[in-house]
Inverse folding.
């Protein structure tokens, strides 16, 4: 097993822990849920660390980072202001 597979396994374990903790927090009383949410935050930070390590693999690409945002129908705020000025 190379380093990539070890890091990927650690990443998957953290994601599974987050999923389990989410279910616990959803059904727990308030103070317990708050404590579980704090633990989830730590697990999330660890998962982010493993994800960054995975991104260091040569040739790593992930298509969901290539967002193409749709422009709103009214334009950006600056073009909307420019259009108002042009209509006066």
């Amino acid at each position: 097993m190379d380093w990539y597979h070890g890091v990927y396994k650690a990443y998957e374990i953290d994601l599974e822990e987050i999923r389990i903790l989410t279910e616990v927090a959803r059904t727990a009383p308030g103070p317990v849920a708050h404590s579980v949410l704090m633990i989830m935050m730590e697990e999330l930070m660890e998962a982010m660390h493993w994800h960054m390590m995975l991104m260091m693999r040569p040739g790593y690409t992930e298509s969901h980072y290539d967002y193409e945002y749709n422009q709103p129908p009214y334009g950006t705020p600056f073009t909307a202001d420019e259009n108002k000025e042009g209509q006066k």
